[in-house]
Amino acid sequence: GAVVSQHPSWVICKSGTSVKIECRSLDFQATTMFWYRQFPKQSLMLMATSNEGSKATYEQGVEKDKFLINHASLTLSTLTVTSAHPEDSSFYICSGLGAAGNTDTQYFGPGTRLTVL
Amino acid sequence: SQQGEEDPQALSIQEGENATMNCSYKTSINNLQWYRQNSGRGLVHLILIRSNEREKHSGRLRVTLDTSKKSSSLLITASRAADTASYFCATAPSSNDYKLSFGAGTTVTVRA
Question: Which residues in A lie closer than 8 A to residue B102 (C-beta atoms)?
Answer without folding.
Answer: 43-45
